[in-house]
C-alpha cells in the first residue's frame, strides 16, 4: 500500500455563521519515500488536509489510510499509539518543552512510547541535525533555527514512516531553511521515509519530488519534478 492514502476526504466545519467546506473530496496517494509539498492559496484547505492526514482531526467523509491501516478504524488510544510510533511532526511552532534539556526533548517521544532511549540514538540524531554539543542546553538558550533542528531531531528519533511538516521554514533564515529541508530530504533518500510538507515557500517546494496544489478544497493539480501532470 502507499505510505499514506487520502481517499475522497471531505471536511466541513459547522458554526453558527454557517458551514465551511474546507475539503471537498481529496484523493491522493503518497508513495513510500516520496517528498511532497502541498501548496495553494490561503484558505484552500492545506492545514485541514495536514490535520486530517495526521489523524489530529477527523474528515467528515472519506478515509485516511496509513500503511494500509484506516485511521477511522482506530480508537483514540490506538490512534495516539500509531501517531507516536509512525508519524513525525515538524510544525512551525517548535513545541519544545522549555523545562527540559535538548537531550530530554529529543528523547521524549521514545519515553512516551514506553521505550528507554539509548544515549547513542539520541546523540546520533543530534549529530544529524548538527547539535551534538547542545544536548545539555534548554530551548531558550538556542536560536530559532537551532530550536527547529531540535524539533526535527525529536521527530527523527522514532524513525517515523511519515513526517508531517507545516511551514517548517516559515520562521527561519535562508541558510537554516536549507539545512532543515535537506534533513527532510535525507530522511526520504536514506531511510525511505515519506514527507508531507505544507509550504508557501517556493524554495522549500523545490526540495520536494512532487507538488500538490490545492484550490478551494480540491486538488487543482500536481507537478512532478518539473513535469506538469494531470492538471485538473
Ligand atoms: P489553508 O491552510 O490553506 O490556509 P485551512 O485548511 O486553514 O486553509 O482552511 C480552509 C477553510 O476552512 C478556510 O475557509 C478556513 O476559514 C476554514 N476553517 C479552517 N479551520 C476552521 C475551523 N476550525 N472552523 C471553521 N472554519 C475553519
Ligand atoms: P534515564 O534512564 O533516566 O534517562 P540516563 O542516564 O539516560 O537515565 O539520563 C539521565 C539524565 O541525564 C537524562 O534524563 C538527561 O537529562 C541527562 N543526559 C543523559 N545523557 C546525556 C547526554 N549524553 N547529554 C546530555 N544530557 C544527558
Automatic annotation (TrEMBL):
Listed GO CC annotations: membrane protein complex; plasma membrane
Domain of life of the organism encoding this protein: Bacteria
Key words of the record: ATP-binding, Nucleotide-binding, Transport
Transport in keyword set: yes
Keyword Ribosomal protein tagged: no
Residues annotated as domain ABC transporter: 4-232
One Gene Ontology MF term: transmembrane transporter activity
Official protein name in the record: Putative ABC transport system ATP-binding protein
Organism the protein comes from: Kribbella italica
Amino acid at each position: 500500500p502507499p505510505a499514506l492514502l487520502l481517499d475522497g476526504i471531505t471536511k466541513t466545519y459547522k458554526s453558527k455563521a454557517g458551514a465551511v467546506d474546507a475539503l471537498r473530496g481529496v484523493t491522493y496517494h503518497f508513495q513510500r519515500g516520496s517528498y511532497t509539498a502541498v501548496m495553494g492559496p490561503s484558505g484552500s484547505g492545506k492545514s485541514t488536509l495536514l490535520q486530517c492526514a495526521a489523524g489530529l482531526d477527523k474528515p467528515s467523509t472519506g478515509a485516511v489510510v496509513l500503511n494500509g491501516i484506516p485511521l477511522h478504524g482506530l480508537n483514540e488510544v490506538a490512534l495516539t499509539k500509531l501517531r507516536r510510533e509512525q508519524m513525525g511532526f515538524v510544525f512551525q511552532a517548535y513545541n519544545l518543552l522549555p523545562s527540559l534539556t535538548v537531550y530530554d526533548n529529543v528523547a521524549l517521544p521514545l519515553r512516551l512510547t514506553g521505550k528507554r532511549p539509548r544515549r547513542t540514538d539520541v546523540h546520533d540524531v543530534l549529530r544529524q541535525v548538527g547539535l551534538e554539543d547542545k544536548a545539555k542546553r534548554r530551548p531558550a538558550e538556542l536560536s530559532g533555527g537551532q530550536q527547529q533542528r531540535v524539533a526535527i531531531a525529536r521527530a527523527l528519533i522514532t524513525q517515523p514512516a511519515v513526517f508531517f511538516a507545516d511551514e517548517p521554514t516559515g520562521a527561519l533564515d535562508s541558510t537554516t531553511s536549507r539545512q532543515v529541508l535537506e534533513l527532510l530530504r535525507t530522511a526520504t533518500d536514506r531511510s525511505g521515509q515519506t514527507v508531507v510538507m505544507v509550504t508557501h515557500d517556493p524554495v522549500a517546494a523545490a526540495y520536494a519530488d512532487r507538488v500538490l496544489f490545492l484550490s478551494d478544497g480540491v486538488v487543482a493539480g500536481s507537478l512532478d519534478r518539473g513535469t506538469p501532470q494531470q492538471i485538473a
